[in-house]
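Ticket #4471: structure output looks truncated?

Reporter: J.K.
Steps to reproduce: submitted the chain below (172 residues) through the standard prediction queue, then opened the result file.
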Amino acid sequence: MNLKRIEDITSQILAKFDSNELPVPIRKIAEDLGIKIHSYDLGENISGVLVIKNDQGIIGVNPTEQLVRQRFTIAHELGHFVLHKNSNESIFVDKDYKVLFRDQQSSTGENRREQEANAFAASILMPRKLLIEQIENHFTDLTDENAVKGLAKMFNVSVIAMTIRISNLRLF
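Returned output as attached by the reporter:
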């Protein structure tokens, strides 16, 4: 699935719930889509898990991680649910996934689903339209690290996630 299609899907979800608020209420959106979210100590190497049974999703999120990471995990697992629930897999476990679109493994195409779930998470947590509005209205100089930190705080995501999103949207 291409990134444009993922952007369209997340825009439709945000429009459906009339969500223009910041930070994006990802937990509420997931729950409104019928996903149950539970906190589980999944160990230090696992951020989240998605279990799909009878077209119902349950996201397990590791409460020992920072809130921004938990939000990204919920969005990432929601991405698996929305994008991949009709696949043959019924459990998605994410071990130390990175908020990157490409790495040595991903260049082989083996992590296509992880790339798509990451793209979904970035798109829904940092919607292009809202991000551009905030940059134009408040943070025009993206070469200033305080601007990126301010945006990350506003969207309640990590600075690295914001930096990657800005870079992937070519907003620098």
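Triage note (M.O.): checked the attachment and the full token line is present. Strands lie at 36-39, 46-53, 56-61, 91-95.
Status: closed, working as intended.
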